[in-house]
Input
Amino acid sequence: MSFKDWLSWDEAYRQEGERRRDTKFDDLCTYGIQPLDDSLLAIAKNELVVIGADSGVGKSTLILDMARHNAKKGKKVALFYLEGGHIEAIQRMKWRDICEMYFKEKRMHEYVEIDFRKWIMNIGDQSRLNELEVRIYSEQKDTYKNNLFFYPITEGFKINELLESLLGFHSLKPSSGPFDKEGAYDLDLIIIDHLQYFSLDKADNEIVEITKIIREVKKITDHYNIPVILVSHLRKKGKDRGLPDQEDFYGSSNIPKISTTAITIASDTKDDNLSTNIFPTFFRVVKSRSGIRPNYAMRCNFDLTRRCYEDKYNIHKLDGLGNVIDKPLEEIDKPSWAKK
Output
């Protein structure tokens, strides 16, 4: 870089102000999960969000709900559901819509068995659920068909294939502001589930290859102002591990380092209630540029019957080992963003 490439203080000061004032909150994607939207507000256009969780915690359900939430807001979302494929993804999202419509309209004395397992296997009387499925398609097709896109995954999926697939969204529309790139991709959000499903190059070791992938994904956010949500597995859980932090991402410590925001989720198994299908979940923001402290966690119930997270949540402090202090914070002790 030569001296002429440097920016003076006043030029950098001016550029920052122009970029910030050009940002419109309604143009941004959000999480659709109350504790994350309260603490992080939204997903910036150049943000790489990494979400880490152990197997079976619900990370796939979480990101499918984020895709659905933003598509219904009118955002254009590209979904790479690498592990389960597009059929499983649309199946789970369809079930979420069916559950939402059923409980919203539930008739007095009506009983319908809301059982995902039996629904996907077509067991029993499915007439009421089939009726809801037809209505959902009729009422929401115009929203979903223009805003939610699934990439059909093939075996041996590599980072180059992801980058090439995005060319289908390449747009030559004129830029809408000083910080939009002319000819950029016509997308508002990219979601990838999950990092460890990429096929690795045998010429490199796993850590080097994962680092390459995460850097290539970060280039998308930097060069095209499109946010990316990337899911990652965590390392095998040790008996003394508290809530997972940056060091627990599987494969490389560069995963949270390169990301803009890193979030971990963990089940609160001691308070699972199988009789009511309520499963408490901890959300921990382990890295952010907005000042959210990693020594706090937000505990939010997941309602398996309705397939959604509740809006109400508690905030817990963590000790030095990441263990949850049982008693939630009182209202007066909560951070300002969480106060009623």
User: Anything to note?
Assistant: The CA atoms of residues 115 and 305 lie 8 Å apart. Strands lie at 48-53, 77-81, 148-150, 189-193, 228-233, 261-267, 278-287, 296-303, 308-317.
